[in-house]
Amino acid sequence: MSADEPTGRGAAARRAARAGGAPSDPTGAGRVGAGQAGGAGTLSTGPTAAPTRRQLDPDTLVALEEERDFLLRSLEDLEREHDAGDVDDHDYEELKDDYTARAANVLRALDERRALAARSGASRS
Questions:
Q1: Which of 58, 61, 70, 114 is deepest in the core (most CB within 10 A)?
Q2: For residues 21-30, b (16+ Cβ closer than 10 Å) or e, as one string?
Q3: Model confidence over 72-81: pLDDT tens digits?
């Protein structure tokens, strides 16, 4: 953190203001906007859908896990900063809603990828 950063807003708020509030996300999972259909975890997993290599890519899973960890830490930081008075109520509610929605999307995507991997592994046996 530099001395040039504005005061009155905590680290979580500053992180949210930078580049969408998340680390580099090659999967795009943490960057689903409210208006996008399907959410981060949308996969074609119907009875005839075959999993794609990208959907089962271990790097994709790692990126999603990192995104999940980032968002959960950000929620904890935000709560602490709000309690300390470093983040006002309006910013707190806005950031909390954003982090919570993004975390839910990432958690769904992780669950779907794990289920897809389990089905894919079972069908190969």
A1: 70
A2: bbeebebebb
A3: 999 999 999 9
